[in-house]
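User: Can you predict the 3D structure of Flagellar biosynthesis protein FlhF? Sequence below.
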Amino acid sequence: MSVTRFLGANVREAMRRVRSALGDDALILANRRTAEGIEILATTEAEAADSPQAPAASQTEAPASDSEADFSLPAGRSPASFAQALAARHGVSLPEDSVSDPASRDSASDSLRAQALAARHGVSLPAGEADAKAAELRRETPPPKPLSRARAAYSPAPDAYPELPEVDGYPMPPEPAGDSAVPRPGGYPAAPEPAAGEAAIPPAAAPGIGQPAGATSDPADFVALSQRLLSEVQDMRQLLTREPPAREGRPGALQGLQRQLVAAGFGHALISELLAGLPTELALEDAAAAPVQAWLKRTLAARLTTRDDEESLFTEAGILALVGPTGVGKTTTTAKLAARYVMRHGPEGLALVTTDSYRIGAHEQLRIYADILGVEVHALDAETPLEGLLGRLADKALVIIDTVGMSQRDQRLVDQVARLQRGRRGVRLMLMLSATSQGETLEEIVQTYCRAARGAGARLEDVILTKQDEAARLGPLLDGLIRHGLRLNFVCHGQQVPEDMARADGPALVEAALASAEAAPSNGQVAAELPRLASWSRDLAGQSRALGAAWRRLGRSLPAFSPLAEAWQAAGLPPAEQARHLEALWSSEAAEAGTIMRWARRRPQAQGWRQPDQRLTPQGLGLGLPALQHRQPADEIERLAWAEALGVRAHLLPSLPGRDAWDWLGERVRPWLSQAQAGARVWHRGERLTLGELVGQGEALTPLPCRYRQEAATLSLRQLAVAASPAGSRRQEDRALWAWCGELQSDTGRRLGRRYWLSPAWLEWDALELLRHQLGLEGLERLTRRAWQQLPEAGLEPLEPQLRLTLAAGLAALAQALEHSEAPWALDLRGELLALQGGRRARSAGRLLDGLVQLLIARDALRSLTLGLEEVR
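Assistant: Sure. Here are the predicted structure tokens for Flagellar biosynthesis protein FlhF:
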């Protein structure tokens, strides 16, 4: 990440230079007053989000930060030179040879850091005594806590950090009234005032490094401070050496899940694919933790394809042939399917055919079942052609063929499958698999029958599982079904007809497979059995399965994904056809009652386009394609009426509505919430004040959990009754409003920012849900710009401008929804999309956007590859 230093005569001049160089996405890292003026260190939000390391110094050397978070040495700086610079910043005199010797570098850095922090807190610490005390404490002090706990151990009082005024949304130091107003380095508070009766020590006479300690130091306080300082030193050393924080006794979920899946019978290839998508939020949890197990079960169930509706098998008119090795229960399963059909549709439209002339009594067994059900049955030899008989049964809605069982190594298998496909009517193949077979045997059966079907010009996609009640483990069977993309239709678990047959239930089968896992092997056994996991499977079939699982999950969970995927398909058309295809998609959008409209600002971006508006579900998820502003009515009332026709019942506004729009919304009692700035003026108790001047007033509400700029945060809200005039009103109109002031804080208590909203006075608690949606969509414009730039780089050229903007805004809205949602489906999707990019990446909206683009590109590439293989075949 590149950090740039800006200088200005005053705050506004420095901010002007920042905006000129970095634009609206500038992120202020630090600021201070120097002899040359106001100094600002800044970078861009995109670089800060995408950088896996802490900021490095730019071409203009920036002062080192006191923050221990994401600390790294500046480029080109040795530890010795950096130690000298750090000592100079804290006013510490450091001998040259104290850091030059590598053997003593650790102890020197401990002493340096202890002395510097002691001086910062007004505690005298002689160098010789510090070394002796540090050695003693290292022997007595337990291993250091993780960094977050060390921070919690040293946390100044909340009022120790004075609030800084904001300029254009960024906290800046106030103009100094004199020398005393110059801020202290790093923003740390001044030393505490002396207690009553104590003599204040002048700055010149204060004990410094290397001076004898005065009587002001309490030994108990010194010991506590030393322990705290040593903990910080250990944390700093850990960050400098880039050692990840370890959790004692917690190996993480990855290794435990490996053992569990291996014990359940799943293969190495599938395990690699599954665990590559493990969300970063779960990586350090125990494998047995409920969230980790829930993720594993959801992921396996999503990969396992099952028939959604039993009726669909019977309503698909045609011929169904049950094929498989000997002894899997084809004849009994034929009777079970026939009984279920008769119970639904009666016996008239069904006919049974058996070609099993090898097994004694096979014909008679099926005839007995047919007589009981009252259906027509025909028996043929295995070598007899089926064309004539199937022609006579053309009036039957469904014909079920019970074929002769053949080993997967029988040379006649290919001829048997080819004989089924010689008639005019296509024959659907249903593979029968026994749950008691070993994993290697199941793999050989599936591969052989799939090759035979392809050789005969047919497709083998459906499976029925038998003998589930006799199986010790289901993992090998589910592994084969997932890897080969086969659909499981029914599960048989006994001999009773038709009771012992049920439609396949994916989650229940996954639960049974994981419950049947054997005792987990030791860590050494797992390391020997399982190859090292790659972040992304190198196997093309594995990539296809992972893409398919992510695609299906996106389609089920996000309503806006399907229309956006259709719009993506138009990118391969000529520009004129792209516009027509997009117009057809817009025309096909249907109204849906109870939705929310997020209105963007009616001003163009730097690229010349305006941010599209977006319909949302009541849960805050995107719905349909983004609404381009130039396709909407120009009048505000007409736009609201147009949204009303689409089922919109609530509105997220970028600013207060005009008088007519305000009245229109009020007459229909349509909830709305508008964003506001700190400088917006409102009336409160007879005074006209800015919202920023009203901070801290009003009723405090329960804090809301949320996410802000890729980290978990808490929104502390206050609600205050105010009045304001509609936008564009030239005369004073005191209309009652609720003002909402939200303070964003990280989980560690760090202040992240402040936001303001306004809502009508009759809207109270419903405004909180709208407020959460509004905050969750903050930064959508920045993501849209990023997607706008990525699309041509993805090979989508030439792109018609309307289609390009629709895709960019739609992808940005999807990424934003995935980033802010804490639902289980969002957790699973984040893991899958981040796994597409390789490695273990931190969660961020920008990376999720990259994953969505890669998913769409990869799907197009795989479809092109499939078409190419079909042409070759």
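The two ends are 50 Å apart (CA to CA). The first strand starts at residue 4 and ends at 8.
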